[in-house]
Amino acid sequence: MRRPALPRPAFLSRPAFRRPSLRDVAAGLRARLVLAFLLVAALSALTTAALTFREARTAILKRTQDTAIEALRSQVNSQVPDYTFPLSQQALQDLQHRLNAAGGAQRWTVHLRYHGSGLVPGGGPGRIPQGVQAKVRAGIPAFQRLDSGGEPWLAIGLPVTYRGTSEASGLEVYAQMPLREDEANVQALVKAAQRGALPAVALAAVPALIAASGVLRPVRELRRASRKIAAGELDTRLKVTGRDELADLSRTFNDMAEALEENVAELRRMEANSRRFAADVSHELRTPLAAMTAVVDVLDEDAETLDPDTAYAVRLISEETGKLARMVEDLMEISRFDAGAAALHLDEVDVSETVRKTVQARGWQDKVAADLPEGVRARLDPRRIDVVVANLVGNALKHGGAPVDVAVRVAHGEEGRRLLIEIADRGEGIDPDVLPHVFERFFKADSARARSEGSGLGLAITLENVRLHDGTVRAANRPGGGAVFTVELPLRQGGGETA
Question: What φ, ψ does residue 142 adopt, rounded to 5°?
Fold first, then answer.
């Protein structure tokens, strides 16, 4: 005998697992942590490289200009004393030639000016910055880096004084030298910094991943524990390590899980007690109800011989006793489902014929418009399908009125062939707020109808019988008006009986 599992509370239903997409991974906390770590590493590497480049460039250029100024001053001090002042134009040209020849290592080009005359050209870019010239005329040595023709140059100016005095001789010496080699050294330094920064950022990915894993490990554990809680494993707890915020979160989760486990245990205990009470009461009522029904049946047969008031009372007692008996039977049936004792006896049947017999047995032929094709066979429990169809048709007649449409058909889907039984009425339909609750036990759409002919368990029993067949039943409203209930069952075929 197969025992169906008890329905799980909605909050304990296992969530559907979905593999994270690439977009989800990219937007996840791990990716953001790694990206932030890499950005910090890249910013640090670039900042360090920029500062290093600036300091190194300044040092290279300062060394070059200091060396050039000192070399030029040394040559001027050694060459000028060979001449007698005042200097002739020929002497100026000779001095210029000798200074140019002495500057082979620095590759400078010398220009001379004597007592405010024009510069004696010596090649090179052909211009000395005015700022340098102004300082030299004022007796101050000066230098300036400039760009000429897309190439870097260094301009140097030295005022010449008489030996042993600070008196200006009127001779001004200017030199220009290219800085191509220094610029090449600077560019090589830039490339070296770039080559060093990229591997540094790449290597930073390793500690970034390690750090992200360390931070996310408690989060992953929390996610796994949450899924276990959602799957019903309420004894799940997290291991708490450390004293940081994640440890506090783990402690809070454990407190929540403990409280949830206690509350669910209490709810299950109360639910089990209520089900046991209903089953016990129903069982205890069956014997006296059987005796009452037998007596009432006898009285009902003799009602015509009694006076009108007594006959009315007898018929009322007979009707109410019948309702009570049906309610007790429904409670007993629900108790069997709750206890997992409901047996399913499968047999290969003609579905249309089974539905037709259900309608005929209750005398509903004139109230039902049936669409029952021949040849639809399936392995079902005839008694339970009879209960399902009877409850749904009876409910449609009671709340929707005749005629009720009953149809049997076969549908093809991704899960294979499915058997569909549809019962539709032509009433006003079901309030959309009521639809989600129609299969709940003792639910009444109109709270004012505190008392009705039914037990309030008919649709709940229908749902349990359909579930026992591994099927589903749903309620909806038809576009043209009226409610429709659809029973969907797997289309089993083949003989035999199971229990």
Answer: -150, 160
Q: What's the confidence (pLDDT) of residue 278?
A: 66
In terms of Cα–Cα distance, which of 317, 337, 433 is closest to 387? 337
The arithmetic mean of pLDDT across residues 130-148, rounded, is: 83
Is residue 356 domain-shared with residue 448, that is, in the same domain? yes
**What DSSP character marks residue 20?**
P
Considering Cα of 318, then 321, then 327, then 331, what sign does the dihedral take? negative
Unique residue bearing structure tokens 């005796």: 291
Residue 82 CA to residue 164 CA, distance in Å, equals: 15
Helices (H), 340-350: none
Task: Please tell me whether the overall predicted TM-score, pTM, comes out greater than 0.85 for this model.
Answer: no
> Following DSSP, what letter does each residue of 161-212 receive, concatenated?
E-TTS--EEEEEEEEEEE-HHHHHHHHHHHHHHHHHHHHHHHHHHHHHHHHH
Verify cis geometry, omega within 30 degrees of 0, for the bond prior to 20.
no
CATH number of the domain bearing residue 428: 3.30.565.10
How buried is residue 55: exposed, middle or buried, by Cβ count under 10 Å (0-12/13-18/19+)? exposed
Domain co-membership, 335 together with 358: no
The secondary structure of residue 328, as a DSSP letter, is H
Q: Same structural domain for residues 68 and 121?
A: yes
Q: Where in the sequence is the domain holding 309, given as residue range(s)?
A: 246-339
Q: Which of 310, 339, 368 is the last residue of a domain?
A: 339
| Rounded Cα distance, 375 and 373, in Å | 7
Tens of pLDDT, residue by residue over 163-222, are 777 788 888 888 888 877 766 667 676 676 666 666 766 666 666 666 666 667 777 788
